[in-house]
Amino acid sequence: MYVYIMKLQIADLEFEPLISPEEIQQRILEVAQQINADFEDKEPVFIGVLNGSFLFIADLVKEIVVPCEVTFVKLASYFGGLSSTRQIRDDFDLTIDINGRDIILIEDIIDSGNTIKYLIEKLIMRNPASITVCSLLLKPDAIEHSIEELRYVAFQIPNEFVVGYGLDYRELGRNLKGIYRKIG
Ligand code: IMP
Ligand code: MG
Questions:
Q1: How far is CA 146 from CA 47, 56, 90, 110, 143, in A?
Q2: Where are the domains of the chain?
Q3: Whose C-alpha lies nearest to ligand 1, atom 3?
Q4: Given a cut of 60, is residue 1 above it in pLDDT?
Q5: Which atom of ligand 1 is nearest to the CA of 139?
Q6: If one looks up domain 8-182 in CATH, what number appears?
Q7: What's the whole-model pTM score?
Q8: CA dist., res. 173 & res. 165, Å (int)
Q9: What mean pLDDT comes out for the span 121-143?
Q10: Residues framing ligand 1 (Cβ under 6 A)
Q11: Is residue 111 annotated as part of the catalytic site, yes or no?
């Protein structure tokens, strides 16, 4: 049986539960149903932004019933800290041609919005038919850009540092089934 841990130590920080594994799975079902309806007659390409989105995209695409492709890019922006450095490092790029394709970008979290804005601008130059953004989490009080491509958000959360279900602190905690917020 899975025990939802009440308090968690990761490196020098303490965390407490914010979103349970059951709530995550329930919302993923709802978001997938919306995508299935919105892309009914399409063949979208899901692009996961690594590392943070690996669990989310895995659980999400299992609920997708329209024909689709799944691929990844890798970007990094936090570098072990608690806030965005505003520097984005491109670790690896797309290996497929997205010209004329309907793209669904899958993010773990939109914080300042810098990373997703950078990625959207980069992909637009390759002439996709459309770009839609789907994020597990959104911090509405932290966002600095209006992202018109943002159509699906599983959870809006307070402007606090979180880990779990793909998100890390110093590369730790990505394997947790739930999402935890930093205490204090
Ligand atoms: P943005 O560029 O400020 O929107 O930040 C986006 C990236 O920063 C995300 O894809 C995450 O990898 C990371 N990030 C933002 N907030 C958090 C958090 O609370 N915990 C862990 N990583 C975060
Ligand atoms: Mg990320």
A1: 21, 23, 22, 11, 8
A2: 8-182
A3: 112
A4: no
A5: 16
A6: 3.40.50.2020
A7: 0.95
A8: 8
A9: 97
A10: 52, 77-78, 84, 107-115, 161-163, 167
A11: yes
